[in-house]
Design a protein that fits this description.
Layout: E1 8-9, H1 13-18, H2 22-27, H3 36-50, H4 57-77, E2 84-93, E3 97-107, E4 111-117, H5 131-143, E5 149-155, E6 163-168, H6 169-187, H7 197-200, H8 210-220, H9 224-228, H10 232-261, H11 283-290, H12 296-301, H13 307-318, H14 322-333
Parallel strand pairs: 1-3, 4-5
Antiparallel strand pairs: 2-3, 3-4, 5-6
Helix pairs in contact: 3-4, 5-6, 8-10, 13-14
Length: 350
């Protein structure tokens, strides 16, 4: 069992607000497997907190940007000199919920700055509306009752600018009431399950959720002709249902693959050997072996040049920062560096 036990975590506060019944249903599910993105985030957080760990180049860059953006947030707030710091500590609100907070900067006994690092490329809601940060602010006030003001910051260098929320004592009381309501409702045995694209996206129980399954069944009943007859408003509702259905379908496929890998027999399904792909492991060596037949221009035409890899090479060679390396490559390549616009993609409005 994890350090927080079978209790609500502040990081899931937005999900439990959107779907109160999610907590009870997820509690019946086995622990999920960690994803590569989550593992990367864990490594970066550990490095930021301790200065230790083996990070890949891109991970080190994200860690350094997090540190730089945090300093920017501290400078922007400009509330005084930091007197003490805690990193990666778990705090509890009674025995109801907890949160492992990435960093708290204390400025005397009256002010604290809470920082949450996000290492992915999906932008988070503004700190003023972010329920995870609000839950963290409540936790910090509960554990440091002398505080009169708390700033809560989201640092997300790969997804957007730093955003900062400010909580005075009145705002903290209001936040405490809101978070308490979300938590106690989620613990209720009759907490309703309310499927939605945001609520279902990362839910471990979506594949067994009756309400989410109902959305899938609703879609499956429709023919192409009936979809063409939908009004714009109906189509908006069906797009929400489609997002939920896609999330449920992927969860079902993932569980099926896992069981087949473990030797289960699932009627109508099997694992087939994946396609094999040939790759060139060493471009220099390949060119050396082909140079007598192919000249450099011909060989270059067979290669795909990675812009991001060129940028990293420029950064390393010239000892530049990431942004400087990007600008330098653009300056050096000029018109050779082309920008192509892909077809428009559908995106849910924030």
């Amino acid at each position: 069992m994890s350090e927080r036990g079978n209790k609500i975590s502040g990081s899931g506060m937005a999900a439990y607000s959107a779907c109160p019944g999610r907590f009870n249903l997820e509690s019946q599910m086995p622990a999920g497997e960690s994803s590569p993105a989550a593992d990367m985030g864990t490594r970066i957080h550990e490095y930021i907190a301790t200065g230790k760990g083996n990070l890949k180049d891109n991970e080190l860059e994200i860690a350094e940007l997090c540190v730089a953006y945090h300093k920017e947030a501290i400078d922007t707030i400009n509330a005084g000199d930091v007197t003490s710091v805690t990193k990666e500590e778990r705090y509890w609100f009674c025995d109801l919920y907890s949160g492992q907070i990435d960093r708290i900067d204390h400025i005397g006994e009256d002010i604290a700055i809470v920082t949450d690092y996000k290492t992915g490329r999906i932008a988070q809601s503004n700190a003023n509306e972010n329920l995870q940060l609000r839950a963290y602010a409540v936790l910090v006030k509960e554990n440091f009752p002398k505080l009169k003001k708390i700033y809560a910051c989201i640092v997300q260098p790969m997804a957007g600018p730093v955003t900062i929320a400010e909580y005075d004592e009145d705002a903290l009381l209001e936040a405490k009431s809101q978070i308490y309501h979300i938590v106690t409702r989620a613990y209720s045995q009759n907490a309703p399950r309310i499927p939605s694209p945001d609520a279902c996206k990362y839910c471990r129980a979506k594949s067994v959720c009756p309400e989410a399954g109902g959305k899938v069944r609703t879609l499956a009943k429709n023919s192409v002709e009936s979809i063409l007859a939908l009004t714009d408003d109906q189509l908006a509702e069906y797009n929400d249902a489609a997002d939920i259905a896609e999330s449920v379908i992927e969860a079902i496929r993932s569980e099926t693959r896992k069981r087949l890998n473990n030797g289960a027999e699932i009627r109508g399904w099997e694992l087939k050997t994946g396609r094999s792909n040939r790759t060139i492991e060493n471009a220099d060596e390949a060119y050396t072996k082909l140079a007598d037949i192919l000249g450099a221009p011909q060989f270059a035409q067979c290669c795909k040049v990675s812009v991001s890899q060129l940028e990293k090479a420029i950064v390393t060679t010239l000892k530049l920062k990431a942004k400087e390396g990007k600008d330098k490559l653009a300056e050096l390549l000029g018109d050779v560096l082309a920008t192509k616009q892909s077809e428009p993609v559908m995106s849910r409005k924030k």
